[in-house]
């Protein structure tokens, strides 16, 4: 699989969507959007991602730029 191909990015986006829903990050994202530009960042503990899906956490370590961009 080519890193960054559309199928991989789509998979990362789906993983982020599931993660955000499961751990209640949607409300936090909405608050950041509402308070932008005063608030711009969302801190997510790596361990929460690893507890959610260890393979996804590994992908985040192996391809951080692509994986993080997919979650934006």
Automatic annotation (TrEMBL):
Domain MCM N-terminal positions: 14-70
Signal peptide: none
Protein name from the UniProt record: MCM N-terminal domain-containing protein
Species whose genome carries this gene: mine drainage metagenome
């Amino acid at each position: 699989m080519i890193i960054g191909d559309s199928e991989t990015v789509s998979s990362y986006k789906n993983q982020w969507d599931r993660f955000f829903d499961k751990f209640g990050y949607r409300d936090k994202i909405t608050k950041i959007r509402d308070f932008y530009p005063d608030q711009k960042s969302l801190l997510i503990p790596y361990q929460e991602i690893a507890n959610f899906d260890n393979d996804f956490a590994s992908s985040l370590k192996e391809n951080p730029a692509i994986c993080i961009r997919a979650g934006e």
